[in-house]
């Protein structure tokens, strides 16, 4: 008889929507193991640094895959499977394909495409969060479509700004090239032959990233504004759902006596009135 799995790993497997996402998970695990082994066996310090960076990136991807299960476990949030899949695929394109397989250096516009898509995804998430909070409120609020659209753009651009701060901190602490301040490579790793950009050119990548974030967010905000204005169902009506906490819900055996007690008390009051 097959033993039923329980605990976090069982929940993680349950919340991986399909085989495609599971394939991403195992590819990342294999890349993580191979980079750890390569870092141990490598002789050159530059190769060791590259393998350690790739292994760290793979570990970050595994954390990203686990986040939906953690959200369900601790916040009782039901994340739609389509959203999970888009979220994991986008992270895989940025972390694994971008950093580990070095698509940032192989394809010139890979980073620009991802930043534009991130603006679209963050703005869409903004609409979902606003609608979720509005549905959770005891009093339904009538918010102006213009205000919602502007708030969504601000949310997405703020997310882009925070990511640029993270990139700057990584570049400063670990000597990476995440903000693409080198003329010799667009990859995340710096080699001994690095050629640095100066002046206005050194700022170009960061500013273009923020503008692409904003462009993607504005497109989604305009679309969402039209939906709200004409009261159409779609992205602007999507919301997260919450699971009921089984620990806080009374068991059926506890409900029955309490209900019986309430009925008995009502009957007793009726007799006293008679």
Chart the SSEs and their pairings:
Layout: H1 8-14, H2 19-41, H3 45-75, E1 77-78, H4 81-100, H5 103-106, H6 110-136, H7 145-174, H8 200-229, E2 241-242, H9 252-273
Antiparallel strand pairs: 1-2
Helix pairs in contact: 1-3, 2-3, 2-4, 3-4, 4-6, 6-7, 6-8, 7-8
Supply database-style keywords.
274 residues, mainly alpha, globular, 1% strand, 9 helices, two-stranded antiparallel sheet, single chain
What would you say this structure looks like, in words?
With 274 residues, this protein is mainly alpha-helical. 71% of the residues lie in helices and 1% in strands. It has helices spanning 8-14, 19-41, 45-75, 81-100, 103-106, 110-136, 145-174, 200-229, 252-273; strands spanning 77-78, 241-242. The chain has a two-stranded antiparallel sheet with strand order 1-2. The longest helix has 31 residues, at 45-75. The model has no long low-confidence stretch (mean pLDDT 83).
| Fraction of residues in helix | over 70%
Q: Spans with pLDDT under 50 lasting ≥5 residues?
A: none
Give the overall silhouette.
globular
Overall average residue pLDDT: 83
Profile the largest sheet.
2 strands, antiparallel
Q: Can you list the strand order of the major beta sheet?
A: 1-2
What structural class results from the helix and strand content?
mainly alpha
As a whole number of angstroms, the C-alpha radius of gyration is 25 Å
Write the H/E string, N to C: HHHEHHHHHEH
Distance from N terminus to C terminus (CA atoms, Å) equals 62 Å
The number of helical segments is: 9
Number of strands: 2
What portion of residues belong to β-strands? under 5%
